[in-house]
Amino acid sequence: MTVNEAHLIYFSPTHTSKQVGEAIVCGTGIKNVIPVDLTLQMAEKTVIPASSLAIIVVPVYGGHVAPLAMERLENICGLDTPTVLVVVYGNRAYEKALIELDTFAIPHGFKIIAGATFIGEHSYSTDKNPIAQGRPDDMDLNLANEFGSKIMEKIQAAISPDKLYQVDIRAIRRPAQPFFALLRFLWKVIKLRKSDTPLPRTPWVEEESLCTHCGLCVTRCPAGAIIKGDELHTDADKCIKCCACVKCCNKNARVYDTPFAALLADCFKKQKLPQTIL
Ligand SMILES: Cc1cc2nc3c(=O)[nH]c(=O)nc-3n(C[C@H](O)[C@H](O)[C@H](O)COP(=O)(O)O)c2cc1C
Ligand code: SF4
Ligand code: SF4
Predict the structure, then answer these.
(1) Whose CA is nearest to atom 2 of ligand 3?
(2) Rounded to the nearest whole angstrom, what is the distance from the C-alpha of residue 2 to the centroid of ligand 1?
(3) Ligand 3: distance of its center to the CA of 237 in Å?
(4) What CATH code is assigned to 204-257?
(5) Domain spanning 5-177+271-277: which CATH class is it, in words?
(6) Is the CB of 122 under 6 A from ligand 1?
(7) Boundaries of CATH 3.40.50.360 in the chain?
(8) CA 172–ligand 1 middle distance (angstroms)
(9) Are 217 and 250 in contact (CB under 8 A)?
(10) Proportion of the chain above pLDDT 70, given as a percent
(11) 42, 130, 160, 246: most buried by Cβ count inside 10 Å?
C-alpha cells in the first residue's frame, strides 16, 4: 500500500504539539504535507481521502484533549483515512486524552493505524518552576522521527488497507509514575484547594511599563481573549490558560504565576518517556 500525501492536523498554542507532529511527518518521508493548523481558527470543512495519511496532534489539558482543540476538530473527517493519533502532555499525565481522541476519530471516518503519547514543556513552566523544560528535546524529536519512518514501513508492508487497521489505542503502555511523588502531588493539591488560595483565571501584565502594546499576544491568543489596543486586560471568560501569550511576549510583560506550577515542578521531576503503538 502507499499514501501520496499527509495531512498534519494540530492545535498547538505553545508549539510543542506542532514540533512533535512535524518530526513524525518528516520521519515518514512524505513530501506533500498539508498542514491544518487549528490553533487560531476552526478548519474549513475538510474531507481527507484514503490516499492521504492523517496525523492528528493535540495537547492534554486536565487529563483531557484541550477542549478548544476538540471543538476545532469537528469540521474535519476522513474517508477510511489511515490515521495516527498523538497527544502531547506536560510530564504529569494524559489520563483520558488519547481515548477521547480515538472516540472522536473513529466515527469521523478515520482508521487508526498508530498512536503515541509525547511530552512537551508544560505551559505553566518557568525558569523558577521548570516542568519538562525544553521538551520535546532532541531525544523526543528523534523518537518522533523514527516513529514516522515505522509508520511508513507499516503502510508499505500492508498488502491491503484492512491489514493496517484497527490499532487498539487503549493497549499503549502508560509511562511509569513514581508512586510517592504522585501521592505528594495529590496531598498538596488537596491542601491548596482547602487553603482557599486564589487561583489566577488568566495570565496578567505584572509590570505595565514593560508592555509596548506590540500586539503579538493578541495575534497568538487562540481564544480571542486579548484585544488589540487593550493588551493589559484579558477576558477571563474566553481565556483557556494556554500561556501562548506569556511565552510569546519577548518583553516578559505577561506572567502566569499559578501555585500549581510549583507543585508540578516539585512532584513531576522525573522525566517521562514517549510511548508509541503501531
Ligand atoms: C490548562 C492546561 C492544562 C494542562 N493539563 C495538563 C495535564 O493534565 N497533564 C499534563 O501532563 N500536562 C498538562 N498541561 C500541559 C500541556 O499538556 C503541555 O504543556 C503541552 O505540551 C502543551 O502543548 P502545546 O505546546 O502544543 O500548546 C496543561 C496545560 C494547560 C495550559
Ligand atoms: S506581547 Fe507583551 S509587550 Fe506585546 S502587547 Fe502583549 S503583553 Fe504587551
Ligand atoms: S489570554 Fe488566555 S487563551 Fe489567550 S493566549 Fe493568553 S493564556 Fe492563552
Answers:
(1) 239
(2) 34
(3) 11
(4) 3.30.70.20
(5) alpha beta
(6) yes
(7) 5-177+271-277
(8) 20
(9) no
(10) 100
(11) 246
